[in-house]
Amino acid sequence: MRTSILSTSLRHRPSTWMPSPLCAKAPGPTPHTPPSHHCRPITHSSVPALQSASEYIRLQTSPARRAHVPPPRGVYKDVGSILVAIGRNAQSVSGKFTGWNHFFTATSSSMKDELGITDAKLRKYILGWREWYKQGYDPVTIEIPKRRKKFLKVRAKVQQVRLKKQGLV
């Protein structure tokens, strides 16, 4: 009987895996209880959504997964409502999809060539949320974080030093 290298290396290694203490609901205060601001929900999903997604998750082959079109659920009855919910100006391309089936079967290249969605980041964002919807998660808006102006204070100080050297301050 042959064993793989991975199974033999894991067999002799002591188990160091432990469940993450974040959001663990342990009775009473423990040293591993996180502050309440660490226990925010990451994803939103309903029980019927997860039940309908279970058949999608059971599909083994890639073509069958690509061809799977989930039924509309909750407040998401059309393509526009999903694109409005995910934000980032995705609703601007909602008119380019002809229907529910077209939205869930369009590939990235067909979105670019046939539908004219040239922004690659937007295409990837839509495709990502489409996959999450197939897996049973409800869309939520994820804002792009604003970039800090890192070097403004440093630039001002450097400029003041230069002006002092030139005798202008």
UniProtKB/TrEMBL annotation:
Region (Disordered): 1-20
InterPro entries on file: Ribosomal_mS41, SAM_Ribosomal_mS41
Primary location class: mitochondrion
Subcellular localization(s) per the UniProt record: Mitochondrion
Keywords from the UniProt entry: Mitochondrion
Residues annotated as domain Small ribosomal subunit protein mS41 SAM: 79-136
Regions annotated as coiled coil: none
Gene Ontology cellular component annotations, sorted alphabetically: mitochondrion
Keyword match rRNA processing: no
Keyword Mitochondrion: yes
Pfam name, any one: SAM_Ribosomal_mS41
Family to which this protein belongs: Belongs to the mitochondrion-specific ribosomal protein mS41 family.
The protein, known as: Small ribosomal subunit protein mS41
Organism field: Synchytrium endobioticum
